[in-house]
Amino acid sequence: MIGFLCGEVIFSDGNESVLQTSSGIGYQVFYNKVLVEGTQAAIFIAHIIKEDSETLYAFHSLRAKKLFEMLLTVKGIGPKSAYGLIANIGVNEIINAVNLEAKTTLTKVPGLGTKGAAQIILDLSGKIDRVKMYSDSSKTLKNLSTLPKTNILEMFDEVAYVENSISMNTNQHEILNDALMACKELGFKEDKIIPIAQKILGANLITKPEQLIHLVLKEI
User: Fold this and answer.
1) Helix (H, G, I), strand (E, B), or coil: what is residue 25?
2) 0.90 surpassed by pTM
């Protein structure tokens, strides 16, 4: 079973990513964050094996992975629904929703109705807090010292960016402006696009206007 991957980002669009490991094998994973192509990334993996397929779901932390696995124990909840919950709501929000029996919070995810939300609360009530014992931090590089120095520095920058949500730099402003112009040409209003784009820039590593446009259009 694959539980963790570290390698060079060959492709990433906020839906899927491809990581090439040191062995030369490229792994395609579902990942709801945009990774910088050409840099090194370290992600936790939930390996789902079925009779006719194998699927890899990626997570930034061990806690998110463990919550995903716990959600799979709920009657009627499959990998796509479980991953959608974590991607759209977030780990802490799911924990709070279960503890507070807030079904409306869980039903914000497309495809999950009141019945499914009630089942999650019923099955995980009293035990969901167990996932808090696992780290909610992104994987650091202390155990990855064999990576090239330049890639290590890039990855430290990536982790700091994701965890601290630093303000936009000049390059990000240029990406935002280019993406805004493209969206306006498609007929979308500026006041609707800007908040979505800024939120995405604060939560993801965007290096190209095309990446930002893709994610903005998914949110609209």
Assistant:
1) coil
2) no
